[in-house]
Amino acid sequence: MDRTEIRAVIKFFHSEGKTATEMKPRLDAVLGNASPSFSTVNFWVSEFKRGRSHTIDAPCSGRPKTATTPEIVDKIHDMVLADRRIKVREIVEAVSISYERVVHILHNELGLNKLSARWVPHLLNSEQKRVRAQMSADSLEKKVLFHHDNAPAHSSAIAQEKLSKLKFEILPHPPYSPDLVPSDFHVFPKLKTFLAGKRYQTNEEAMEAVNEYFGDLEESHFRRVGVEKLEKRWTKCIELRGDYVEK
User: Fold this and answer.
1) In this structure, which topology does domain 126-240 adopt according to CATH?
2) Contact at 8 Å (CB) between 110 and 144?
3) CA 120 to CA 103: how far, in whole Å?
4) Which of 37, 41, 45, 64 shows its CA 20 to 30 Å from the CA of 216?
5) Do residues 62 and 74 make contact, with C-beta atoms less than 8 angstroms apart?
6) In sequence order, which residues have a C-beta less than 8 Å from that of residue 33 and are 6 or more positions away?
7) Quick check: helix, strand or coil at residue 166?
Protein backbone atom coordinates (compact mmCIF):
# COMPACT_ATOMS: atom_id res chain seq x y z
CA MET A 1 0.00 0.00 0.00
CA ASP A 2 1.56 3.31 -1.08
CA ARG A 3 1.22 6.56 0.85
CA THR A 4 -1.63 7.84 -1.35
CA GLU A 5 -3.65 4.72 -0.54
CA ILE A 6 -2.83 5.09 3.16
CA ARG A 7 -4.10 8.67 3.06
CA ALA A 8 -7.30 7.40 1.42
CA VAL A 9 -7.78 5.01 4.34
CA ILE A 10 -7.25 7.88 6.80
CA LYS A 11 -9.80 9.91 4.85
CA PHE A 12 -12.29 7.02 5.08
CA PHE A 13 -11.77 6.69 8.84
CA HIS A 14 -12.21 10.46 9.16
CA SER A 15 -15.52 10.27 7.29
CA GLU A 16 -16.66 7.75 9.91
CA GLY A 17 -15.84 10.21 12.67
CA LYS A 18 -12.71 8.42 13.89
CA THR A 19 -9.95 10.45 15.58
CA ALA A 20 -6.24 10.11 14.83
CA THR A 21 -5.80 8.33 18.17
CA GLU A 22 -8.44 5.76 17.18
CA MET A 23 -7.02 5.31 13.68
CA LYS A 24 -3.38 4.67 14.62
CA PRO A 25 -3.81 1.21 16.27
CA ARG A 26 -5.91 -0.02 13.34
CA LEU A 27 -3.31 1.16 10.83
CA ASP A 28 -0.52 -0.43 12.90
CA ALA A 29 -2.38 -3.76 13.02
CA VAL A 30 -2.70 -3.91 9.23
CA LEU A 31 0.47 -2.17 8.01
CA GLY A 32 2.98 -3.08 10.71
CA ASN A 33 6.32 -1.31 10.14
CA ALA A 34 4.87 0.46 7.09
CA SER A 35 2.29 2.24 9.23
CA PRO A 36 2.59 6.06 9.23
CA SER A 37 3.59 7.87 12.42
CA PHE A 38 0.92 9.38 14.64
CA SER A 39 1.99 12.88 13.61
CA THR A 40 1.46 11.99 9.94
CA VAL A 41 -1.99 10.55 10.67
CA ASN A 42 -2.87 13.61 12.73
CA PHE A 43 -1.64 15.92 9.97
CA TRP A 44 -3.90 14.32 7.35
CA VAL A 45 -6.87 14.31 9.71
CA SER A 46 -6.34 18.05 10.14
CA GLU A 47 -6.10 18.48 6.37
CA PHE A 48 -9.41 16.69 5.80
CA LYS A 49 -11.03 18.74 8.56
CA ARG A 50 -9.97 21.87 6.67
CA GLY A 51 -11.85 20.59 3.63
CA ARG A 52 -9.09 18.94 1.62
CA SER A 53 -10.57 16.28 -0.65
CA HIS A 54 -7.59 14.83 -2.57
CA THR A 55 -4.87 12.57 -1.18
CA ILE A 56 -2.11 13.15 -3.72
CA ASP A 57 0.78 15.57 -3.34
CA ALA A 58 0.68 18.79 -5.27
CA PRO A 59 2.52 18.34 -8.60
CA CYS A 60 6.07 19.57 -8.67
CA SER A 61 8.77 19.53 -11.33
CA GLY A 62 12.29 18.33 -10.67
CA ARG A 63 13.58 18.95 -7.17
CA PRO A 64 11.28 19.37 -4.13
CA LYS A 65 9.85 22.84 -3.57
CA THR A 66 12.01 25.18 -1.52
CA ALA A 67 9.69 28.20 -1.25
CA THR A 68 8.50 29.10 2.23
CA THR A 69 4.86 30.17 2.46
CA PRO A 70 2.80 31.06 5.55
CA GLU A 71 0.60 28.03 4.86
CA ILE A 72 3.56 25.63 4.87
CA VAL A 73 5.00 27.21 8.03
CA ASP A 74 1.62 26.85 9.75
CA LYS A 75 1.32 23.20 8.68
CA ILE A 76 4.78 22.37 10.01
CA HIS A 77 4.02 24.21 13.24
CA ASP A 78 0.79 22.22 13.68
CA MET A 79 2.65 18.94 13.14
CA VAL A 80 5.29 19.81 15.74
CA LEU A 81 2.65 20.87 18.26
CA ALA A 82 0.87 17.54 17.71
CA ASP A 83 4.06 15.50 18.12
CA ARG A 84 7.19 17.15 19.50
CA ARG A 85 9.18 13.99 18.69
CA ILE A 86 8.38 14.16 14.97
CA LYS A 87 11.31 13.58 12.63
CA VAL A 88 12.34 16.01 9.90
CA ARG A 89 11.93 13.35 7.20
CA GLU A 90 8.31 12.80 8.28
CA ILE A 91 7.62 16.50 7.84
CA VAL A 92 9.35 16.47 4.43
CA GLU A 93 7.09 13.64 3.29
CA ALA A 94 3.94 15.34 4.57
CA VAL A 95 4.48 18.82 3.11
CA SER A 96 6.56 17.87 0.02
CA ILE A 97 9.35 20.41 0.33
CA SER A 98 13.10 19.91 0.59
CA TYR A 99 14.80 18.64 3.74
CA GLU A 100 16.93 21.79 3.92
CA ARG A 101 13.86 24.03 3.72
CA VAL A 102 12.10 22.14 6.53
CA VAL A 103 15.18 22.53 8.73
CA HIS A 104 15.26 26.25 7.89
CA ILE A 105 11.59 26.66 8.84
CA LEU A 106 12.01 24.76 12.11
CA HIS A 107 15.09 26.69 13.22
CA ASN A 108 14.66 30.14 11.68
CA GLU A 109 10.92 30.61 11.12
CA LEU A 110 9.59 28.78 14.19
CA GLY A 111 12.64 29.21 16.43
CA LEU A 112 12.74 25.53 17.43
CA ASN A 113 15.62 23.26 18.36
CA LYS A 114 15.86 19.51 19.13
CA LEU A 115 16.61 18.85 22.80
CA SER A 116 16.45 15.33 24.28
CA ALA A 117 14.68 14.19 21.09
CA ARG A 118 11.95 16.84 21.40
CA TRP A 119 11.34 20.11 19.57
CA VAL A 120 11.51 23.03 21.99
CA PRO A 121 11.90 26.81 21.62
CA HIS A 122 15.47 27.65 20.61
CA LEU A 123 15.52 30.54 23.07
CA LEU A 124 13.50 30.61 26.28
CA ASN A 125 11.94 33.91 27.30
CA SER A 126 12.67 35.42 30.71
CA GLU A 127 9.43 34.11 32.26
CA GLN A 128 10.05 30.54 31.06
CA LYS A 129 13.58 30.67 32.49
CA ARG A 130 12.27 32.02 35.80
CA VAL A 131 9.70 29.20 36.07
CA ARG A 132 12.32 26.54 35.27
CA ALA A 133 14.76 27.89 37.85
CA GLN A 134 12.08 28.26 40.54
CA MET A 135 10.66 24.76 39.99
CA SER A 136 14.18 23.31 40.08
CA ALA A 137 14.84 25.06 43.39
CA ASP A 138 11.51 23.87 44.83
CA SER A 139 12.21 20.31 43.72
CA LEU A 140 15.57 20.22 45.49
CA GLU A 141 13.86 21.11 48.77
CA LYS A 142 11.35 18.26 48.82
CA LYS A 143 11.36 14.51 48.58
CA VAL A 144 10.21 13.48 45.11
CA LEU A 145 7.36 10.99 45.19
CA PHE A 146 5.99 11.29 41.67
CA HIS A 147 7.36 13.16 38.67
CA HIS A 148 5.87 13.36 35.18
CA ASP A 149 6.41 15.60 32.15
CA ASN A 150 2.86 16.96 31.72
CA ALA A 151 2.12 14.64 28.79
CA PRO A 152 -1.66 14.44 28.13
CA ALA A 153 -1.84 10.84 29.37
CA HIS A 154 -0.12 11.83 32.63
CA SER A 155 -2.14 14.99 33.27
CA SER A 156 -5.55 13.58 32.29
CA ALA A 157 -8.42 13.70 34.78
CA ILE A 158 -8.30 9.91 35.23
CA ALA A 159 -4.56 9.92 35.98
CA GLN A 160 -4.85 12.88 38.36
CA GLU A 161 -7.73 11.24 40.22
CA LYS A 162 -5.71 8.04 40.69
CA LEU A 163 -2.65 9.94 41.92
CA SER A 164 -4.84 11.82 44.37
CA LYS A 165 -6.28 8.57 45.74
CA LEU A 166 -2.76 7.20 46.17
CA LYS A 167 -1.85 10.42 48.01
CA PHE A 168 1.25 10.88 45.87
CA GLU A 169 3.03 14.21 46.11
CA ILE A 170 3.29 15.42 42.53
CA LEU A 171 6.40 17.31 41.53
CA PRO A 172 5.68 20.30 39.26
CA HIS A 173 7.36 20.23 35.86
CA PRO A 174 8.01 23.35 33.74
CA PRO A 175 6.99 23.40 30.05
CA TYR A 176 9.58 22.98 27.27
CA SER A 177 11.87 21.05 29.62
CA PRO A 178 12.75 17.57 28.29
CA ASP A 179 16.26 18.21 29.65
CA LEU A 180 14.74 17.90 33.15
CA VAL A 181 13.00 14.55 32.51
CA PRO A 182 15.07 11.38 33.18
CA SER A 183 13.13 9.39 30.59
CA ASP A 184 14.01 11.95 27.90
CA PHE A 185 17.67 12.63 28.70
CA HIS A 186 18.56 9.10 29.86
CA VAL A 187 16.08 6.23 29.32
CA PHE A 188 14.77 6.80 25.79
CA PRO A 189 18.15 7.63 24.12
CA LYS A 190 19.65 4.37 25.42
CA LEU A 191 16.55 2.40 24.44
CA LYS A 192 16.74 3.94 20.97
CA THR A 193 20.35 2.75 20.67
CA PHE A 194 19.32 -0.77 21.75
CA LEU A 195 16.53 -0.92 19.13
CA ALA A 196 18.59 0.59 16.30
CA GLY A 197 18.78 -1.71 13.28
CA LYS A 198 16.35 -4.27 14.71
CA ARG A 199 13.09 -5.20 12.96
CA TYR A 200 10.05 -6.85 14.51
CA GLN A 201 7.15 -8.45 12.70
CA THR A 202 4.51 -7.53 15.27
CA ASN A 203 3.94 -5.00 18.04
CA GLU A 204 3.98 -7.89 20.50
CA GLU A 205 7.54 -8.84 19.47
CA ALA A 206 8.69 -5.25 19.90
CA MET A 207 7.04 -5.00 23.33
CA GLU A 208 8.66 -8.26 24.42
CA ALA A 209 12.10 -7.00 23.34
CA VAL A 210 11.62 -3.73 25.25
CA ASN A 211 10.45 -5.58 28.37
CA GLU A 212 13.50 -7.85 28.23
CA TYR A 213 15.77 -4.82 27.81
CA PHE A 214 14.41 -3.12 30.93
CA GLY A 215 14.27 -6.42 32.82
CA ASP A 216 18.02 -6.92 32.38
CA LEU A 217 18.90 -3.50 33.83
CA GLU A 218 19.99 -3.06 37.43
CA GLU A 219 18.02 -0.73 39.69
CA SER A 220 21.12 1.43 40.02
CA HIS A 221 20.92 2.12 36.27
CA PHE A 222 17.83 4.24 36.88
CA ARG A 223 18.79 5.66 40.27
CA ARG A 224 22.43 6.58 39.64
CA VAL A 225 22.23 7.83 36.05
CA GLY A 226 18.61 8.94 35.98
CA VAL A 227 17.21 10.16 39.30
CA GLU A 228 20.48 11.28 40.91
CA LYS A 229 21.52 13.04 37.72
CA LEU A 230 18.20 14.89 37.74
CA GLU A 231 19.17 16.61 41.00
CA LYS A 232 22.39 17.79 39.36
CA ARG A 233 20.41 19.10 36.41
CA TRP A 234 18.09 21.05 38.71
CA THR A 235 21.15 22.63 40.32
CA LYS A 236 22.66 23.38 36.91
CA CYS A 237 19.37 24.91 35.74
CA ILE A 238 19.43 27.27 38.72
CA GLU A 239 23.06 28.21 38.00
CA LEU A 240 22.09 28.93 34.38
CA ARG A 241 19.15 31.05 35.61
CA GLY A 242 16.63 28.75 33.97
CA ASP A 243 18.36 28.18 30.63
CA TYR A 244 18.58 24.74 28.99
CA VAL A 245 20.87 22.12 30.53
CA GLU A 246 22.67 20.51 27.59
CA LYS A 247 24.70 17.94 29.59
Assistant:
1) Nucleotidyltransferase; domain 5 (3.30.420)
2) no
3) 14
4) 37
5) no
6) 199, 200
7) coil
Give the sign of the dihedral formed by CA 187, CA 181, CA 244, CA 175.
positive
Rounded Cα gap, residues 101 and 88, in angstroms: 10
* Cβ atoms of residues 102 and 91 within 8 Å: yes
Burial of 102 (0-12, 13-18, 19+ CB in 10 A): buried
Answer yes or no: are the C-beta atoms of 32 and 6 closer than 8 Å. Answer: no
Q: CA 7, 25, 114, 244 torsion: positive or negative?
A: positive
Backbone angles phi, psi at 216, to 5 degrees: -85, -5
- Write down the pTM of the prediction: 0.45
